[in-house]
Write a structure and sequence with these properties.
Oligomer: single chain
Number of domains: 2
Strand content: 15-25%
Helix content: 25-40%
Number of helices: 6
Radius of gyration: 18 Å
Strand order of the largest sheet: 4-5-6
Order of helices and strands: HEHHEEEEEHHHE
CATH architecture of the largest domain: Alpha-Beta Complex
CATH class of the largest domain: Alpha Beta
């Protein structure tokens, strides 16, 4: 590094943004900042990190991954509308998901086994119901309408709602889906 260069961690990035009268809007790729992307769901540290406030999750994941070479983010004027994507309440049912443009299907999902997919070198799997939801992510269709797909409706309403909430929140945290409000 050049002697004048300064390496910034998550806290440093947020301090610079807010110290200059701006508001943090989002990361360039959520995958690099949430535990979903680097910590297996069965690992004992995962629930501890997920219990932290969001900004502390970003810091913890950054410290554990040590793979972040640069931070890509969007900052905006404080008066701009917030683009938070909360998955609590009912608002998320009206979100219109959009697939990441780099999404690729490696093998389709079937009843017997999950499908294999990748995005920019990151491999992931989805079961049939998840793949059905993901395939409908066209930026036009709201989640509530996606939940009425014949291959999804078979579940009891409360279970279906929670399944979809968890799925879409995970896809957003991994950076595989974007959402229009």
């Amino acid at each position: 590094m050049h002697p004048q260069d300064i390496a910034y961690d998550v806290a440093g990035v947020l301090d610079i943004i807010e110290g200059n009268g701006l508001r943090f809007q989002c990361w360039g790729d959520n995958h690099d900042y949430y535990p979903d992307g680097i910590i297996p769901s069965a690992h004992p540290i995962r629930p501890l990190i997920e219990a932290l406030p969001e900004r502390q999750q970003w810091t913890a994941v950054e410290k554990l991954s040590v793979a972040t070479g640069a931070h890509y983010f969007v900052a905006c004027r404080p008066e701009r509308p917030n683009i938070d994507i909360p998955f609590s309440g009912d608002a998320w049912l009206n979100y219109r998901p959009v697939q990441h443009p780099a999404f690729e299907m490696m093998s389709p999902a079937s009843v017997q086994k999950p499908g294999e997919f990748k995005r920019e070198g990151r491999a992931f799997k989805m079961h049939v119901a998840e793949a059905v939801l993901y395939e409908q992510a066209n930026g036009q269709t709201a989640i509530a309408a996606m939940m009425r797909h014949p291959n999804i409706v078979k579940n009891p309403p409360d279970q279906l709602r929670e399944f979809c909430r968890v799925f879409f929140a995970r896809m957003w945290r991994l950076g595989h889906l974007f959402f229009l409000k």
